[in-house]
Amino acid sequence: MARAQLKITRRTFLKSGTAAGTLAAVGLRPSNPARNGLALANGTAPWYRRGEIKTTYNYCDMCPWRCGVVVQSVDGVVQKIDGNQADPKSRGMLCARGQGGVSFAYDPDRLQSPMIRTGERGEGKFREVTWEEALDYTASKINTLKDTHGPESLAVFGHTSGEFWFTDYFAQAFGTPNAAKPSSSLCLSPREEAAILTYGLGVGGHEPVDWDELECLTLIGSHIGEDTRNTVMQDFSAAWSRGASVIVVDPRFSSVAAKADHWLPIKPGTDTALLLAWMNVIITEGLSDAEYVAEWTEGFDALADHVAEFTPEWAAPITDLSADQIRTTARVMAASKPRSVIMPGRHVVWYGNDTQRMRATYLINALLGAYGRHGGMYFSKSPYLEAYPHPPFAVAGSSGGCSAEPGEESDELPLGPTGKARADGARDTFLRGSTAMQELIDPMISGDPYPIKGLIVYGTNLLNSVPNVPRTIEALKALDLVVAIDVLPQEHVAWADVVLPEATYLERYDELFAVAHKTPYIAMREPAIEPLYDTKPGWWMARELGLRVGLDSFFRWETAEEYLNTRLRSVGSSLEKMRDSGGVIIQAGKPYLEDFEGASPFHTPSEKIEFYSEQLAEAGHDAMPVFEPVEEPPDGFFRLLYGRHPVHTFAKTQNTPLLNELYSENEVWVNEDAASAAGFSSGDEVWLENQDGATSGPIKVKATQRIRDDAVFLVHGFGQDSPGLTRAHGVGASDTKLQTRYALDPISGGAGMRVNFVRLRKEV
Ligand SMILES: Nc1nc2c(c(=O)[nH]1)N[C@H]1C(S)=C(S)[C@@H](COP(=O)(O)OP(=O)(O)OC[C@H]3O[C@@H](n4cnc5c(=O)[nH]c(N)nc54)[C@H](O)[C@@H]3O)O[C@H]1N2
Ligand SMILES: Nc1nc2c(c(=O)[nH]1)N[C@H]1C(S)=C(S)[C@@H](COP(=O)(O)OP(=O)(O)OC[C@H]3O[C@@H](n4cnc5c(=O)[nH]c(N)nc54)[C@H](O)[C@@H]3O)O[C@H]1N2
Ligand code: SF4
Ligand SMILES: [Mo]
Q1: Domain of residue 24, CATH code
Q2: Which domain CATH number covers 532?
Q3: Is residue 143 part of a domain?
Q4: Using a 6 Å cutoff on CB, does residue 160 contact ligand 2?
Q5: How far is the CA of 403 from the centre of ligand 4 (A)?
Q6: pLDDT band at residue 408, thresholds of 50, 70 and 90?
């Protein structure tokens, strides 16, 4: 009852919020607010009385979700960031990290000037140089690499929202297929590959759960609440308030488990067994959507045969759940079909068999008839927007990642102009696969299959995001050129030959954010203030480098405005028109099956959702998901699990003053009984040591009943070693440094990171 009442309250609130928001948005551009008496008397006037307010539109870069924001600054100082009411992701609201953007920009630890290395790599000794010198130096090194080893010998890693300029535009124009994003093989590539194999569409940047009409939500690990993507939090709260059923499968009692009707504390690594048993119940009890299955799927009989033996009784001892729990939850899910979905999740590189696990979740969604149905999974559509005209790229294809649009990636593996394929083993190993960033590191050391000699690291936290840090350091020592483009002195920056400091998202124009969505849309970024210190925007750096390495024909625009206005012309708009209409352009989508008027929206060979995958069978993989046990922790060790904290993003915000104040140090979650058996209790300081002897710490114990006794849990991003990060340095423990190994997913090239084990030690 309480939840039903909340629904009404929230609906009413949203309605009035929108109306009030429109008025507020109009009021955001006061022509010239008079200074009040306090300000004139040099008193402490509130910021909005200190001078003319400049209002600019932007999309948040505090995490890869990119909510639309409205930024207000006075006299060249950013004062406030609000959610843009017109933006489909923020809808006028922001998470704590989005609000914390001001503090990110004004972090005094920021990189302030271009630098060239003077000491040994890793020592962090540099001299400040002019932009001219830094760019000339970098370009001459890149030209030498190209002449000596070919353009493929330059790898480009990129994340954060300026990634496009380097990982996509520069890399493709220059002619290297070795461009990669951590948001692909270290995050969501199994999810995308499984979706394309199973129903012929990518999931895309914004998971297309049709929240407004959803009746049952199942979460496999996805920890909404710790994962504080703004829109997902809003949508989840609304669905929950409306009374939607929630099933959470997580070895840890996560924030969202606390809101669940059913919490299944599964033994880590056994989710595929649970998914097979759920399919068994749905099929044997006749709970699937028979009409939908007949019309839109292929291979149902094969699937029915396949799962016949995977009963709840079979799965119970494997998953450490009861057969009754498994059966009950399958029935709950099916009772709401087709308004019932297992959310695809996002960070899905877990155990190396991740594409098959993701396929199993999609098969259940298909049995329940969810794809293209109201309250199920809608179809995202990319907005229409033409590229800036440029000559054909030397390398086709995309490096994938969180921002990848569905259908954007081609089936062809990109080849370099000299006919060489990506060096990550894609052609030999992976069935499909967007670039596997971690697999590009071996060729830097071994020269096999061919040498990679140079690396541009744009907005990627190289030593905090990629497993097997000792190997990355070996590669950093072996390279001929390392360029770091960042805003903070992160650990890997000390290993660079050239450091190019970027202006933050609040200080620059950037590529348009064109989002595949229920309502496809385009958001803009413009500077709220001038770049602080001697920093420059990424687009400018990419262009200046491009002009110096013979790519003039790709960089014909002089200014960012010229580039953006040219693209916007293709949709009858311009920066000025976008500003006038609230910073976003919204187009019409085609979210449901009925929008296709009988044609199939599924781009598989059969044009149906494929329970049985011929493509997988032909490539020698299991055509239907099977459960493969994962290695057990050795005696005295726990499996190392990790996840998010609501006020931090990855390893990049721990030093942000405001966010650091909210949560400054991580703890290791240990089951209370297991902790006391090992002689530890809450607050004790311990070191963590993994199966290979790697250590991180000291870190405080959080002894709790909220986690199983075979695993421990860490918030990712702490335990940083860069002395330049004055607040984050040396605090807590790092999951990355304890992930000396990973399990490679043979289908997607994803790096499963939950295959590491740690023990607690009093000292090292
Ligand atoms: N605040 C905040 N929010 C973020 C981010 C951030 O940095 N900060 N990053 C964003 C990004 S890019 C991503 S990819 C997402 C990641 O967010 P999710 O996709 O939700 O991340 P996961 O790593 O899949 O989920 C972590 C949860 O999985 C549970 N888990 C561990 N092992 C298992 C297992 O074997 N089985 C099951 N069923 N559960 C398991 C853990 O206990 C934990 O609760 O978050 C996004 N949102
Ligand atoms: N151990 C472990 N590894 C993980 C994960 C995990 O949970 N645990 N999560 C995985 C996932 S889901 C993802 S998506 C990836 C994320 O991987 P990354 O994107 O590498 O993670 P961040 O720590 O956010 O690093 C962002 C980097 O960009 C810099 N930066 C911030 N703003 C700007 C800017 O405006 N311009 C430039 N040039 N640089 C900027 C930051 O200082 C930082 O160095 O990590 C993956 N790796
Ligand atoms: S979820 Fe939060 S941090 Fe991420 S883009 Fe939105 S407001 Fe920014
Ligand atoms: Mo991610």
Answers
A1: 2.20.25.90
A2: 3.40.50.740
A3: yes
A4: yes
A5: 10
A6: very low
Residues composing the chain: 764
Query: Could you tell me if residue 72 is inside a domain?
Result: yes
161 and 240 belong to one structural domain:
no
pLDDT digits (tens, 9 = 90+) for 661-704: 999 999 999 999 999 999 999 999 999 999 999 999 999 999 99
**Among residues 151, 739, 744, which one has the least CA distance to residue 433?**
744
Nearest bound ligand to the CA of residue 648:
1
**How far away, in angstroms, is 201 Cα from ligand 2 center?**
26
Around Cβ 415, how many Cβ atoms within 10 Å? 18
Residue 264 sits in the same domain as residue 365: yes
Determine if the peptide bond prior to 64 is cis (ω within 30°): no
Q: Decide: 181 in ligand 1 pocket, CB within 6 A.
A: no
Quote the DSSP letter at residue 399: -
Q: Which residues contact 97 (CB under 8 A, 6 or more apart)?
A: 60, 62, 63, 228, 647, 648, 649, 653, 659
CB under 5 Å of ion ligand 4: residues: 187, 347
Residue 285 C-alpha to ligand 4 middle, in angstroms?
37
Give pLDDT, residue 434. 80
Query: What pLDDT sits at residue 21?
Result: 34
Which ligand is closest in space to the CA of residue 655? Answer: 2
Ligand 2 and 186: CB distance under 6 A: yes
Give me the number of domains the chain comprises: 4
The rounded Å distance from CA 752 to ligand 4 centre is 13
CB 759 within 8 Å of CB 689: yes
pLDDT at 419 over 90: no
Tell me if 659 CB under 6 Å of ligand 3.
Answer: no
CA–CA distance, 11 with 19 (Å, rounded to integer): 13
Residue at 611 is within a domain: no
Bond from prior residue into 449 cis (ω within 30 degrees of 0):
yes
CB within 8 Å of 124: residues ≥ 6 apart: 489, 493, 494, 723, 724
Q: Which domain holds residue 77?
A: 20-105
Q: Is the domain of 48 the same as that of 70?
A: yes
Q: Which ligand is nearest to the CA of 500?
A: 2
Ligand closest to the CA atom of residue 638 = 1
Note whether 427 and 560 are same-domain residues.
yes
Q: Whose CA is nearest to atom 5 of ligand 3?
A: 66
Q: Is the pLDDT of residue 14 over 60?
A: no
CA gap 110, 104 in Å, rounded = 9
- Write the burial class of residue 622 (CB in 10 Å: 0-12 exposed, 13-18 middle, 19+ buried): middle
Identify the three-state secondary structure at position 305. helix
* CATH number of the structural domain spanning residue 271: 3.40.228.10
Ligand 1 atom at shortest distance from the alpha carbon of 222? 20
User: Do both 176 and 36 map to the same domain?
Assistant: no
Which ligand 1 atom lies nearest to the CA of residue 187?
14
State the closest ligand 1 atom to the C-alpha of 647, by its place in the atom list counted from 1: 1
pLDDT tens column, 280-301:
999 999 999 999 999 999 999 9
Atom of ligand 2 nearest to the CA of 651: 23
Distance CA 170, CA 425 (A): 22
Q: How many Å lie between the centroid of ligand 4 and the Cα of residue 183?
A: 5
pLDDT at 484: 98
Ligand 3 contact via 481 beta carbon (within 6 Å): no
Cα 249 to Cα 342: distance, rounded to the nearest angstrom? 11
Q: Is residue 228 within 8 Å of 663, Cβ to Cβ?
A: no
- CA of 630 from ligand 1 middle (Å) equals 19
Are 349 and 745 within 8 A, CB to CB? Answer: yes
189 CB under 6 A from ligand 2? no
The pLDDT tens digits for 25-41 are: 333 434 444 444 555 56
Ligand 2 centroid distance, CA of 540 (Å)? 22
Contact 488, 500 (CB under 8 A): no
The average confidence (pLDDT) of the chain is 92
